[in-house]
Amino acid sequence: MIEILGVSSQALWGQLLIGLINGAFYALLSLGLAIIFGLLNIVNFAHGAQYMVGAFCAWIALNWFGVNYWVALILAPLVVGALGALMELLLLRRIRDLDHVYGLLLTFGAALLIEGSFRQFFGSAGLPYPMPEQLRGGRDLGFMVLPNYRAWVIVASAVVCLVTWLVIERTKLGAYLRAAMHNPSLLQAFGVRVPRMVTLTYAFGATLAGFGGVMAAPIYQVSPAMGSSTLIVVFAVVVIGGMGSIGGAMVTGFGLGLVEGLAKVFYPPASSTVIFAVMVIVLLLRPAGLFGRVA
């Protein structure tokens, strides 16, 4: 077995795979955060709770209604997106003209309320969610065994991130969204319903979080705390990539997942803090983030 700096190649590839899986979730969640902040200028602290709700929707659909993973992968994100739209209409729209700190506090309070409600109803212990039958097992690549479900998570996350980036950066709809951020009054003068666009944008960001929650359910146990524990790292990823940068969220999410995986191989005690160390260094050298624009 080949060793690299005293570490077996099998252990190295295994940790890189774990890092890439974590990076897939970091990229997907940070993409939703970047969209909401970049286009609506809202720091959405409820994003982790929406991720958790997506996982619980899949669990409830399976255990209460017998709905399988593939149907839940479509329905659960739509439910989370609808709840996000309702939250924007009833709560966020009322404070849109106030200082942005009010949006931060409101979404933070909403996250605590949602997490507390699920903890009260389902308890704090994690609930198992089975992998879909079609994606069980793995493939022997020679240097490592690649589990089918892990491969699916990486590919699905990358495809969703890429399609989202193309829509926002390369289509007429994306141009409208960017215009709504810079000059909503002018865009509304051309007949575009900006308030509806804002609601749908927030709902789409929440939908991405719900989609990530469903994919995470078979890997991590479904629990009320799964969102809050992940959100801190995701915020660090968004800051490193550049607040509001769609491409930065994608690249940084996958990249930092790999960095975290390497840290687990060569210096495990640093694996839980390496992302925050990178954030400090990036902010010192480039306060706008790696892909952010300096105002």
Model description:
With 295 residues, the protein is mainly α. 71% of the residues lie in helices and 3% in strands. It is built from eleven helices and four strands, in the order E-E-H-H-H-H-E-E-H-H-H-H-H-H-H. The protein has helices spanning 9-40, 47-65, 69-90, 100-122, 148-170, 172-182, 184-189, 194-216, 226-241, 246-266, 274-285; strands at 3-4, 7-8, 138-140, 145-147. The protein has a two-stranded antiparallel ribbon. A hairpin with a 4-residue loop joins strand 3 and strand 4. Helix 1 packs parallel to helix 5, helix 1 (9-40) packs antiparallel against helix 10 (246-266) and helix 9 crosses helix 10. The model has no long low-confidence stretch (mean pLDDT 88).
Helices and strands, with pairings:
Blueprint (H helix, E strand, L loop, with lengths): L2 E2 L2 E2 H32 L6 H19 L3 H22 L9 H23 L15 E3 L4 E3 H23 L1 H11 L1 H6 L4 H23 L9 H16 L4 H21 L7 H12 L10
Percent of residues in β-strands: under 5%
- Strand arrangement across the biggest beta sheet: 1-2
Q: Secondary-structure element sequence?
A: EEHHHHEEHHHHHHH
The structure class reads mainly alpha
Q: What value does the average pLDDT take?
A: 88
Q: Helicity level, as a percent range?
A: over 70%
What is the makeup of the main sheet? 2 strands, antiparallel
Which regions have little confidence, pLDDT < 50, spanning 5+ residues? none
How many DSSP H or I helices? Answer: 11
Q: How many beta strands in the DSSP annotation?
A: 4
